[in-house]
Amino acid sequence: MIRVVLADDQTLVRAGFRSILDGESDIEVVGEASDGERAVALARELRPDVVLMDVRMPGADGLEATRRITGDPRLDGVRVVILTTFDVDDYVYGALRAGASGFLVKDTEPMELLHGVRVVARGDALIAPAVTRRLIAEFAARGGRRPDPGPRLNALTEREREVMGLVGAGLSNDEIARRLVLSPATAKTHVSRIMTKLGVRDRAQVVVLAYESGMITPGWLA
Predict the structure, then answer these.
(1) φ and ψ of 122, to 5 deg
(2) Mean pLDDT of residues grouped by 10 in the chain (222 residues)?
(3) Could you give the C-alpha distances from 90 to 93, 114, 142, 183, in angstroms and in order?
(4) Is the pTM of this model over 0.85?
(5) For residues 80 and 69, is the Cβ–Cβ distance under 8 A?
(6) Most distant CA pair in the chain, distance
(7) Helix axes 203-212, 184-198, angle to 10 degrees
(8) Facing residues of 26 across strands?
(9) How many CA atoms lie less than 13 Å away from 200 in the CB half-sphere?
């Protein structure tokens, strides 16, 4: 059973999401929060698999709440999905850096919501949708200071760098396997080793680091 906490300051939004999620046999909404402080408290109390987190809430906002959850080693198994009203939201940049596993637009279709929860619950990240790739591409295109990649990227093998670039472009393990003529299991092993060497929680942070480090740029795969 996938256990979910809903964090949004709008009661009707939470009710709508709950009605969709609770209608599934493998998903259960175990708690609701109307602000970031409560979301963090529920994450610590209930240890859900997924927190659906609005970015704009009173008090501690979704960005701060995400940072607290992903920074708490006791909550290593809790994944945060950011909820946003717009395709591109400035808060989402910080949330992805803070450890969020991806994001969903609030008016997403029910099937996309369910798919997103299941994808994140099994340890993957919501990086495949084109809107997410566009979000991160726009972040990279802003031309801000790129951090020194440092020894973490230097520790990657040539093949791992190649795989990291494809992860950054939004490809799934199966797509990476087909492109590099590998087995899906081998592609998955490469991705796991990359995350271990980089010290990141999941694929979303691999994507961000791939762009931030200058390893790839928007349109690199095209």
Answers:
(1) -85, 5
(2) 96 95 96 95 97 88 91 92 72 76 85 91 67 58 53 88 86 90 94 91 81 68 56
(3) 6, 25, 12, 37
(4) no
(5) yes
(6) 50
(7) 70
(8) none
(9) 27
